């Protein structure tokens, strides 16, 4: 069995509403990549999934079609990553339909999420530059033509670069990033 075959599961994760944002951005040719726990789980790193973090080049360009698709901008929650307050620019959105939906045209067998992720169905848009990720480069794998996951070496490089970046407002975040590495 190849390494790719070993990570394939028969679950229907990408049919869940949290990944519909990926489909929308992909269809509109808005560059993005899945980040943090969801990207790590793709590479079979044992981790729980929380909010779905997506890196984009332009927050305003990415949020408009998502709001048009029914996602709701959460303006009441403070900017945070993993429950830790940060000063990083971000948009937090709630899913238009928190229940699993009818399967779309995506075959969704390569990511694994735990059921607690279903209850949240929130996405957080972050600027790719803040995480040292170049969306213009060919640094992502496209799973079944809709969900973009960073290549593992690039994901690791970006996390290390973020960890090494000295910034007092990210000190608690550094601990979380270090645990990902």
How many helices? The count is 7
Spatially, the strands of the biggest sheet line up as 1-2-7-6-3
Radius of gyration: 15 Å
Main sheet overview: 5 strands, mixed
Can you write the helix and strand succession as a string? Answer: HHEHEHEEEEHEEEHH
Question: Portion of residues in helices?
Answer: 25-40%
Global outline: globular
Arithmetic mean of pLDDT: 76
Structural class: alpha+beta
What does this structure look like?
- The protein has 7 helices and 9 strands.
- A 5-stranded mixed sheet has the order 1-2-7-6-3.
- Strand 8 and strand 9 form a beta hairpin.
- The chain is globular.
- The N terminus is likely disordered.
Tag the structure with descriptive keywords.
181 residues; alpha+beta; five-stranded mixed beta sheet; two-stranded antiparallel sheet; 9 strands; disordered N terminus
Question: Strands, helices and their partners?
Answer:
Blueprint: H1 3-7, H2 20-27, E1 32-35, H3 36-42, E2 52-56, H4 59-68, E3 72-73, E4 80-81, E5 84-85, E6 90-94, H5 116-120, E7 122-127, E8 140-143, E9 147-150, H6 152-164, H7 171-180
Parallel strand pairs: 2-7
Antiparallel strand pairs: 1-2, 3-6, 4-5, 6-7, 8-9
Helix pairs in contact: 6-7
């Amino acid at each position: 069995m190849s390494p790719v075959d070993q990570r394939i599961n028969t679950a229907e994760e990408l049919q869940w509403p949290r990944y519909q944002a990926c489909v929308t951005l992909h269809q509109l040719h808005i560059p993005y990549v899945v980040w943090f726990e969801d990207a790590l789980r793709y590479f079979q790193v044992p981790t729980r999934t929380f909010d779905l973090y997506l890196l984009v080049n332009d927050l305003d360009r990415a949020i408009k079609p998502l709001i048009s698709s029914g996602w709701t901008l959460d303006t009441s929650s403070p900017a945070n990553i993993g429950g830790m307050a940060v000063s990083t620019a971000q948009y937090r959105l709630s899913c238009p339909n928190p229940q699993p939906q009818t399967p779309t045209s995506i075959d969704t067998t390569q990511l694994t999420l735990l059921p607690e992720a279903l209850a949240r169905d929130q996405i957080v848009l972050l600027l790719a530059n803040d995480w040292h990720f170049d969306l213009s480069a060919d640094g992502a794998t496209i799973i079944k033509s809709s969900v973009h996951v960073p290549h593992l070496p690039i994901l690791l490089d970006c996390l290390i670069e973020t960890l090494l970046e000295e910034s007092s407002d990210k000190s608690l975040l550094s601990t979380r990033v270090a645990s990902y590495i």
